[in-house]
Design a protein that fits this description.
Elements (H helix, E strand, L loop, with lengths): L1 E4 L13 E2 L32 E4 L9 E3 L6 E4 L4 E3 L1 E4 L7 E7 L11
Antiparallel strand pairs: 1-2, 1-3, 4-8, 5-6, 7-8
């Protein structure tokens, strides 16, 4: 799992712009079954209010599940705390083909910390 402040756009082929936050092995639970990344597998990522954070989640195994999007950069989902946008899909390595638009099929756990 890699992350960077701001958008992935213009950095979707430049791994040097990203920070690795986790390097772990997980066992896929099968088609249409959620595969969890265990709590404590990486340090929490602080995201400031009204900012963007990009994530590059990759696997050397079978495909990570996604849905086709309708428009790259379009709001896909939101609540009063955050907004998720449609993005792109990448193959390994990051310099490989870009598939767009894509929507990650996953669950994001978060908590709000007032600083």
């Amino acid at each position: 799992i890699w992350t960077k402040e701001g958008s992935y756009q213009s950095y979707d082929k430049d791994l040097a712009a990203w920070t690795k936050v986790a390097d772990l092995t997980v066992k896929g639970q099968g088609l249409d079954e959620p595969t969890m990344i265990q709590a404590g597998s990486f340090e929490p990522i602080a995201i400031r209010r009204n900012s963007r954070q990009a994530f590059y989640i990759t696997s050397d195994g079978p495909n990570i599940r996604y849905s086709n999007g309708s428009s790259e950069g379009k709001e896909f989902g939101s609540n009063s705390d955050l907004v998720l946008y449609e993005g792109v899909g990448k193959r390994v390595p990051i310099t490989a083909a870009t598939m767009s638009p894509r929507v990650w099929n996953g669950v994001l756990k978060y908590e709000i910390i007032f600083m």
